[in-house]
Design goal:
Layout lengths: L2 H17 L3 H8 L3 H9 L6 H11 L3 H5 L9 H10 L4 H7 L1
Length: 98
């Protein structure tokens, strides 16, 4: 078991405990056997991307929290897109989108 897998397992167990679920309840919700959830939390197996999504919904936490990643700010794509497009518009059109 790698240190990363062990850390993921601890975060999964903490999130499950915080949400008030047992391993058996989580297993039933995901359609897996309880030993699978125990293996995730023990760091010997990893949930796949779909399962991580489901776990984050069940535990009411973000996937990046489960993965131990710092929350990343997302660029405001609409602003970036319109900023560039606005440069090509006449002044009336540019004023409408700012």
């Amino acid at each position: 078991m790698t240190p990363e897998a062990a850390a993921l397992g601890r975060r999964l167990a903490k999130a499950r405990d915080g949400a008030g679920f047992t391993q058996e309840e989580v297993a039933l919700l995901l359609g897996v056997h309880r030993p699978v959830v125990a293996a995730w939390e023990g760091g010997t197996r990893r949930p796949n991307a779909h399962q991580l999504d489901q776990l984050s919904a069940i535990y009411r936490v973000r996937v990046d929290e489960l993965l131990g990643e710092a929350a990343r700010s997302r660029p405001e794509f609409a602003r970036l897109l319109f900023r560039d497009a606005g440069d090509r518009l006449d002044p009336r059109g540019k004023a409408e989108i700012q």
